[in-house]
Amino acid sequence: MFDVSLKVVVTNNRGEVLLLKARRDSEFLFGFYDLPGGRINREEMNQKIAVLIKRELVEEVGSKVRYKLNPKPLAVATTKFKANPRLPNRDGKLFLLFSAKYLSGQIVISDEHDAFCWKKLNTTTNKKFLHPIFQQLLTNFYD
User: Residues 40, 50, 10, CA angle at the centre, nearest 5°?
Assistant: First the structure.
């Protein structure tokens, strides 16, 4: 079974992308930075994507952040990962990648991440900071 994960490439007016540092206990992303977003919960299956993205962005970067979302997906990818004992029936993720323009507001990260940064994406940055699945998804954002 796959989880469906909505991820958002949030860019500022300098062309930098918002990255969230994964916590040490993150089995899938340890050692990498993440993009804001997350899984669709079973009870949310009938909600609009924009509503689900808003929930995830509020959870991960705070309620004060204002952005303009592009409602069309930029990319789609799947990945397999080793079984998680907490989620024994899941062995992969389906990622839907969206873009948003950061408008204003203080970023306050959740306890799901250790830090955040704004980075210009390029081949070197992507290999250093991003999990290979996000490197693949973000090829259109390289310098």
Answer: 95
2-141 is a CATH 3.10.20.30 domain = no
Query: Residue written as tokens 């991820």?
Result: 7
- pTM assigned to the model: 0.87
- Which tokens belong to 98? 């969206």
Q: How far apart are CA 125 and CA 127, in angstroms?
A: 6
Contact 8, 36 (CB under 8 A): yes
Residue range 97-119, pLDDT digits in tens: 999 999 999 999 998 889 999 99
Q: Rounded to whole angstroms, what are the CA distances from 70 to 21, 43, 86, 99, 107?
A: 24, 24, 33, 6, 20
